Amino acid sequence: MASKLVLLVAFIFDLIAFALAVAAEQRRSSAVLATDSSNNQYCVYSSDIATGLGVGSFLFLLGSQLLIMVSSRCLCCGRGLRPSGSRVWAIVLFIICWVTFFIAEVCLLAGSAKNAYHTKYRTYISSDHPPSCKTLRKGVFGAAAAFIVFTGIISELYYVSYSKANINFPTPYGADTGVRMGSL
C-alpha cells in the first residue's frame, strides 16, 4: 500500500510550488521609461522578487518529484511489478508524470531567467526610438503553475498505482515478470 506520509509530503511540496508560481506570476517585473537630466531615456524596472519565487517553486517541485521517484525506485530499479492493470497504469502515469514535470520545470526556469534579464540601453543619438524595456510575457509562471498541478496529481496517482502493483504475489512457475536493473 502507498505510504500516506510520502503522499502528504509530496502534496505539501506541490502545493508550495504552486503557490510560489502563482505569486511569481503576480509579481513579475514591470518596466517604465524614464528620462535623466541630460534627456536620455532608460528603463526602470520594478522589484525582481518573481525570479526568487520562480526558483523556489522550481526547487519545491523538484523535491516533490525526487521524493516520489526515490520512494518508487523510479520504476526501473527493484523487483518486477505484479502483472495487472495497476502496472500498466503505473507505466503510463510514470511517462506522463515526467513529461508534465519537464514542461513545468522549463517554464519555471525560463520565466525566472527572463524575469531577471533587464535591458540597460539608453538613447544617446536619437530620441525617436526609445529603448525597448523587455519584460517577461504574462502567463509563463501561470503555465508553470498549471503544469505543477498536473504533475502533482499525476505523480501521486503514479505512486498509488505503483504501490498497488508492487504487492508481493506468487509468480506462476517462479518466473520473473520483466527485466529489471535491480541486480546490476
Walkthrough of the structure:
With 184 residues, the protein is mainly alpha-helical. Helix content is 57%, strand content 5%. A two-stranded antiparallel ribbon has the order 1-2. 30% of the residues are buried.
Give short descriptive properties of this protein.
mainly alpha; 4 helices
In short:
This protein has 184 residues and is mainly alpha-helical. Helix content is 57%, strand content 5%. The chain is elongated and about 80 Å long.
User: How would you characterize the largest beta sheet?
Assistant: 2 strands, antiparallel
Q: What sort of overall outline do the alpha carbons produce when their principal axes are compared? A: elongated
Report the strand count: 2
Strand content: 5-15%
How is the secondary structure organized here?
Layout: H1 4-26, E1 31-35, E2 41-45, H2 49-71, H3 85-116, H4 140-165
Antiparallel strand pairs: 1-2
